[in-house]
């Protein structure tokens, strides 16, 4: 069963439906309920390599459902510290728990000020309303 | 068919077909050949099989009935309406098959001397000339055997051009809009270029402001499908041309949607330097099963030296294959290309003759007629005059009744229709992409629209019927997720 629609107010978002949970100089990244719902049950997660450098607004990996393959667009820049192996093994974890066990990568931020241009929940809801 | 909802909502289990391996009985044979008494040739031990191949064992009539029954499960343009957007599933005239079966086409060898196959070479030359006229460009290579191979060939030609100018290291980027077919970015990656994605604006055109910031002297070119996969002609194509011309970059036209513009507008006039033509879409050719296809490319004169060899040239009244192209990127396929496709497409073009423009006009008219009939019941994200296809969204049904594009597509099968393309292009949520082609009569378009409208009503009145569809096919809703995650692609022999 997929999770019920929700968008936590302690996260930051981008227009491509990715979220970031900033914890000090690190952040967890994932995709929102809306993105997971639009794709349907995920069947594959192609993560970046641990140690790779990822850049804000650029693709850092791919997720795939039976409908489509989608690029993961990073909301922030940094170095990949950890990849969520649970999602690699069981990609549908993202549909079940998009903000918890369904996180995708943990990164060390290279430019923490980038968070200032990300969307808070109110702004992200405006993006959703336009869909 | 109509009134599907009145019938019982169960699949007849006797309709399920066993696999041919499941019908196998040990020792049964289709054909017993008398032992000819000849010596058995010695097979080197390391090449000999250790055990017999595990083939199904059946009598001949069982095999014939198995495959005959399977063939009745097939759905093609000959069995019904097939509005699969982006695929241009038009009717394939039977006369094409008669012509391609003429001994002068069927029985020739690709290594025959040019003098002995003048008719075949003349046909190829004439086909090249028609494609030059249709695209408004200067030279043609018939070799690529698919649209995707045309893309790769065209990009390799563009790369060779820039390398010849000493700009190979500098021109790294190819710009592609977010509505593009997936083959475009794949071709860019295979050629070794870098992908620069560009957004679509609110009217369905390339976002010009986004584009301006992304095109510079490192740009090798643009890849554009026009009309786009939204079925919309880019209203700013002249401005786009100026942006690329200004930095010395080239423009590639993905001809997937050429069926909208033949005889009306020419990619060469729009500023494109390379075009691939999907012969199997625009100019008829059975292609529902994945081939064979034809993806010739046409190019502007500056790119001609880099085309694959050979091409057909004319010397006075004689035709010959020209192999002497020192700057060619090389062959991309054996011989001069998929010849049977050439004959069928050439026959199709000649049957239309000077009226070929009507083909595109009727295709566009059909699409607009259906768009107007359906746009109240389904969302129309880009409300504009469309070209040969249009993209609806089932997001209104999803929001109100939980009905998805998949549910609509599956339900259409109950009424005897091939579903439209769904979930593409990706910029439209719950997309339903409908392409009727010029082949269909108004009655067919109306019958399909009636069913689409009925399905939209069912979404409100009885959504469960849609969520569990199809009900009247040999199999019901398949578990697509499990099929993707745990594909079974061979028989397990009970293991």
TrEMBL record, chain A:
GO terms for cellular component: cytosol; glycine cleavage complex. Residues 26-108 form the Lipoyl-binding domain. Belongs to the GcvH family. The keyword NAD does not apply. InterPro entries: Biotin_lipoyl, GCV_H, GCV_H/Fam206, GCV_H_sub, Single_hybrid_motif. PROSITE patterns: BIOTINYL_LIPOYL (PS50968). It comes from freshwater metagenome. NCBIfam families: gcvH, PRK01202.1. The keyword Secreted does not apply. This is Unannotated protein. GO terms for biological process: glycine decarboxylation via glycine cleavage system; protein lipoylation. Keywords: Lipoyl.
From TrEMBL, chain B:
Residues 42-308 form the Glycine cleavage system P-protein N-terminal domain. One of its GO terms (molecular function) is pyridoxal phosphate binding. It is an enzyme of class 1 (oxidoreductase). Its EC number is 1.4.4.2. One of its GO terms (biological process) is glycine decarboxylation via glycine cleavage system. InterPro entries: GcvPB (IPR023012), GDC-P_C (IPR049316), GDC-P_N (IPR049315), GDC_P (IPR020581), PyrdxlP-dep_Trfase (IPR015424), PyrdxlP-dep_Trfase_major (IPR015421), PyrdxlP-dep_Trfase_small (IPR015422). Keywords: Oxidoreductase, Pyridoxal phosphate. Its cofactor is pyridoxal 5'-phosphate. Residues 360-461 form the Glycine dehydrogenase C-terminal domain. GO terms for cellular component: cytosol; glycine cleavage complex. It holds the Pfam family GDC-P. It catalyses: N(6)-[(R)-lipoyl]-L-lysyl-[glycine-cleavage complex H protein] + glycine + H(+) = N(6)-[(R)-S(8)-aminomethyldihydrolipoyl]-L-lysyl-[glycine-cleavage complex H protein] + CO2. Gene3D superfamilies: 6.20.440.10, Aspartate Aminotransferase, domain 1 (3.90.1150.10), Type I PLP-dependent aspartate aminotransferase-like (Major domain) (3.40.640.10). PANTHER family: GLYCINE DEHYDROGENASE (DECARBOXYLATING), MITOCHONDRIAL, GLYCINE DEHYDROGENASE, DECARBOXYLATING. HAMAP family: GcvPB. NCBIfam families: PRK04366.1 (NF003346). This is glycine dehydrogenase (aminomethyl-transferring).
């Amino acid at each position: 069963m997929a999770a019920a629609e929700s968008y936590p107010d302690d996260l930051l978002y981008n227009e491509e439906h990715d979220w970031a949970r900033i914890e000090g100089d690190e952040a967890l990244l994932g995709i929102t309920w809306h993105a997971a719902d639009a794709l349907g049950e995920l069947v594959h997660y192609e993560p970046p390599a641990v140690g790779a450098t990822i850049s804000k607004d650029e693709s850092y990996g791919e997720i795939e459902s039976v409908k489509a393959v989608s690029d993961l667009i990073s909301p922030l820049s940094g170095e990949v510290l950890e990849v969520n192996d649970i999602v690699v093994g069981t990609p549908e974890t993202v549909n079940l728990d998009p903000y918890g066990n369904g996180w995708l990568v943990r990164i060390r931020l290279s430019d923490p000020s980038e968070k200032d241009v990300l969307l808070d929940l109110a702004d992200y809801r405006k993006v959703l309303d336009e869909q | 068919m109509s009134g599907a909802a009145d019938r019982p909502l169960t699949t007849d289990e006797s309709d399920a077909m066993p696999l041919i391996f499941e019908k196998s009985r040990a020792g049964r044979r289709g054909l017993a050949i008398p032992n000819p008494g000849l010596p058995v040739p010695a097979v080197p031990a390391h090449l000999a099989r250790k055990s017999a191949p595990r083939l199904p064992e059946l009598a001949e009539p069982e095999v014939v009935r198995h495959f005959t029954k399977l063939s009745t499960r097939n759905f093609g343009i000959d069995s019904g309406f097939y509005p699969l957007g982006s695929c241009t599933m038009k009717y394939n005239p039977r006369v094409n098959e008669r012509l391609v079966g003429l001994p002068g086409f069927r029985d020739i060898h690709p290594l025959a001397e040019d003098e002995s196959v003048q008719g075949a070479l003349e046909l190829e030359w004439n086909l090249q000339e028609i494609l030059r006229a249709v695209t408004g460009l200067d030279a043609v290579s018939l070799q690529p055997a698919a649209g995707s191979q045309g893309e790769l060939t065209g990009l390799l030609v563009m790369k060779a051009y820039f390398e010849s100018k000493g700009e190979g290291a500098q021109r790294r980027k190819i710009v592609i809009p977010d509505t593009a077919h997936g083959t475009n970015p794949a071709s860019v990656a295979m050629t070794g270029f870098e992908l620069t994605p560009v957004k679509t604006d609110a009217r369905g055109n390339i976002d010009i402001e986004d584009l301006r910031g992304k095109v510079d002297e490192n740009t090798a070119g643009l890849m554009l499908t026009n009309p786009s996969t939204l079925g919309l002609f880019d209203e700013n194509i002249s401005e786009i041309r100026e942006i690329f011309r200004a930095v010395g970059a080239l423009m590639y036209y993905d001809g997937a949607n050429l069926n909208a513009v033949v005889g009306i507008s020419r990619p060469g006039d729009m500023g494109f330097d390379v075009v691939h033509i999907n012969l199997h879409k625009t100019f008829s050719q059975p292609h529902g099963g994945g081939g064979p296809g034809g993806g010739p490319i046409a190019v502007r004169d500056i790119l001609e030296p880099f085309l694959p060899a050979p091409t057909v040239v004319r010397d006075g009244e004689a035709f010959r294959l020209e192999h002497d192209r020192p700057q060619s990127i090389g062959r991309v396929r054996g011989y001069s290309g998929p010849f049977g496709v050439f004959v069928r497409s050439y026959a199709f073009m000649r049957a239309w003759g000077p009226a070929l423009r009507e083909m595109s006009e009727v295709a566009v008219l059909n699409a607009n007629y259906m768009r107007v009939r359906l746009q109240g019941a389904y969302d129309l994200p880009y409300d504009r005059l469309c070209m040969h296809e249009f993209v609806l969204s089932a997001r209104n049904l999803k929001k109100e009744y939980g009905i998805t594009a998949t549910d609509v597509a599956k339900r259409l099968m109950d009424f005897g229709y091939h579903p439209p393309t769904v979930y593409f292009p990706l910029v439209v949520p719950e997309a339903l992409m409908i392409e009727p082609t010029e082949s269909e009569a108004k009655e067919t378009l109306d019958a399909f629209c009636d069913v689409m409208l009925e399905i939209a009503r069912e979404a409100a009145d009885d959504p469960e019927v849609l969520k569990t569809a199809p009900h009247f096919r040999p199999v019901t809703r398949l578990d697509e997720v499990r099929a993707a995650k745990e594909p079974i692609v061979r028989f397990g022999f009970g293991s």
